[in-house]
Amino acid sequence: MPAYRLRGAIRATDGEIGPSLIDEIITAADRQEAVRLVNARDLSPADEQVNALWLVDADGALVWSLRRADREG
Predict the structure, then answer these.
(1) Residue 66 pLDDT > 90, yes or no?
(2) N or C: which end of the chain has fewer CB within 10 A?
(3) What ranges do the domains of the chain cover?
(4) How confident is residue 49, by pLDDT bands cut at 50, 70 and 90?
(5) Its domain of life (predicted)?
């Protein structure tokens, strides 16, 4: 199964992304399943400060991204 990397960080109001606070490997059959798994993931209390999430494939290409404000709004 392909491996994808979920990253999360604090995005400042000027758009700058800080250092990754979430760095997890997601294994999934394909990109669609990887995105589904990420969307089903609950943030832990330790992750609450993170407001930007993104998923990259094994080559580092962006597969998916989300600002938490978009999900909550």
Answers:
(1) no
(2) C
(3) 3-67
(4) confident
(5) Bacteria
